[in-house]
Amino acid sequence: MYKLDLPVDYKEAAAIERRRNMEEQRKSRIFNAKARTIGVDMQALEQQIKDKKQQEDYERRRADAFAADSIRNDKISQLLEKRQEADVFELNRALNEFRTLHQQADSRREFDLYDPDYLKKDKPARVSDDDPRCGISSIQKFDGEDLNSKARNKYQQEQLREWSLEQQREREQARINQAQADRLYELKMRELDARAMELQQAEEDCRRNINMATTDYNNALARERNEKERLQKQQELDDNMTEIANHVFGDALTENPAVAQSAFGPHRVITDRWKGMSPQQLEDIRKQQEKQRLEKERLAQEQKLRDLEFDRQRVANARAATLLEREAERKREELNRRMADENRRLAQEQTSHKEFLDKEVYTNPPTASYFMQFNTSTR
Predict the structure, then answer these.
(1) Nearest to 270 by CA among 257, 282, 253
(2) Of the candidates 271, 275, 278, which has an alpha carbon nearest to the alpha carbon of residue 255?
């Protein structure tokens, strides 16, 4: 049996009575509409003022952070711009140095046509059997009279081979350098893009300003590049027109017979200016032209075969792409069918769950007595 004759704890009873009185006083303050309307909650007002000051301080620190971030981005853009200007300056300096070292006027193939000291450097028509000036039109040396033809041809072939290998190495090195530069540029662009995305999540307005500045900078670079290309094309066109005019109005095309007279006697002629040829020389030229025609026909045939092979591969690739597209379409239709089956299953489960809630769970609607138990205490 339960013991009901326990001694009374007066201290606990007093605490309970005190809490009851405080609750009654609190009810009188809260449920009295007049006192609640007229009264002012100073603690709430002070808390609101404190929250407002904290919000203003947070906005100020946030604005300072965005300003510092914008300044840092501007400095980074200036550094990148200076670096690019330095790279362009270095490329131009290297180009000018290469032209100075390897593209002098006297190293050109056709320099002998407009050499101002040509007459001073001129020699007799033939000095020896291996004189390099004795060509086909010189009438100084014919086929079979050259004693050093085999060695010269071999040396020329080896020289052409070395030139070709050197050009290949230079092109390969240029490609590697360009690939490394592109990779570094791509890595830098990725880093800038990642930074831009972080700034976008932090503040949309800051990202918009950065994008506008970047767009203006790129447009300026594009305009500068277009202007350089236009000036380069104009310079090239002017050079071509000047060269055409020099050739058209020169002694070579006008066939001035006076320029072929030699200073060594009336029976001597300057070989590179003489216009007449013997029948044997003309026959040699015709044979050479026939060889060139045959070679051109052979190259055309090879090009035709390559075009046919390319067409065959293109058709095969198109057929393979069509098969792949059909396979992807079948997989997509299979995936859509599975998704439709899954959606129907989920819809059935949701309908069953809703019917279970309506019929099994929500079978006891609340009455008025359930709502009357609220708002009876201050807690």
Answers:
(1) 257
(2) 275
Say if CB 268 and CB 125 are below 8 A apart: yes
Are 139 and 278 in contact, with CB atoms under 8 Å apart?
A: yes
Please give the pLDDT value at position 76: 92
203: Cβ contacts below 8 Å, ≥ 6 apart: 66
Q: Residue 2's pLDDT band (boundaries 50, 70, 90)?
A: very low
Flag whether pLDDT at 261 surpasses 80: no
| Distances from the Cα of 134 to the Cα of 129, 282, 331, 344, angstroms | 9, 17, 76, 94
- Better-scored residue on pLDDT, 207 or 75: 75
Amino acid at 321: A
Distance of alpha carbon 47 from the chain centroid = 55
pLDDT recorded at residue 199: 77
CA gap 27, 377 in Å, rounded: 7
pTM: 0.22
- Rg of the chain over Cα atoms, rounded to whole angstroms, equals 48
Spatial separation of the C-alpha atoms in residues 271 and 195, rounded to whole Å: 71
Query: How far apart, in whole angstroms, are the C-alpha atoms of residue 96 and residue 84?
Result: 18
**Average pLDDT score over the chain:** 81
Helices 204-248 and 149-202 cross at an angle (nearest 10°) of 160
Question: Buried b / exposed e across 301-338, counting CB within 10 Å, b at 16+?
Answer: eeeeeeeeeeeeeeeeeeeeeeeeeeeeeeeeeeeeee
pLDDT digits (tens, 9 = 90+) for 278-296: 577 678 889 999 999 999 9
